[in-house]
């Protein structure tokens, strides 16, 4: 086993500690529930704003309104 300089070993440990701290911080940010919810919300908004999806939602809304009106009239 090669003899290593204690100062070099300490420097290597410090570098490894900084890399580990950076990795832990990145993982904590990725696992943040608020950030995950914001990402999902943004993806849903982009999806819903697509013309085909928006038209489908509008059509579904129209059908629901017609069904509710018919239900009220038939009472």
UniProtKB/TrEMBL annotation:
The chain crosses the membrane at residues 52-72. The keyword Membrane applies. Keywords: Membrane, Transmembrane, Transmembrane helix. It comes from the Bacteria. Pfam families: DUF3618. The keyword Transmembrane helix applies. This is DUF3618 domain-containing protein. It comes from Mycolicibacterium hodleri. The lineage of its organism: Bacteria, Bacillati, Actinomycetota, Actinomycetes, Mycobacteriales.
């Amino acid at each position: 086993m090669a003899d290593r300089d204690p100062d070099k070993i300490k420097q290597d440990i410090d570098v490894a500690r900084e890399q580990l701290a950076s990795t832990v911080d990145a993982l904590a940010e990725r696992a943040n529930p608020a950030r995950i919810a914001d990402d999902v919300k943004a993806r849903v908004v982009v999806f819903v704003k697509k013309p085909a999806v928006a038209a489908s939602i509008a059509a579904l809304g129209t059908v629901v309104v017609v069904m509710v009106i018919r239900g009220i009239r038939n009472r």
